[in-house]
Model the fold of this input.
Amino acid sequence: MGGLACALFLYGASGLVAPWWAVVVLLLVWVGFLVTACVWWTPHPKRLPALAVVAIAFWFVALLGGSILFDWS
Done:
């Protein structure tokens, strides 16, 4: 859960390089990651660090893809 809290700062700071609608979509995706983490908290706690890594990797790929495809700066 701490990893997802760190990812939240990355998702929130995306407004510096991405348009507002992309930031809203990214934050909705982050909420999906948070819901998944809450569901996995008790039955699969060892998956949570991997989920945080996936969340950060998704953020990186989303911003890189937006920068390449849509010329975000």
In short: The helical segments are 2-12, 20-40, 48-70.
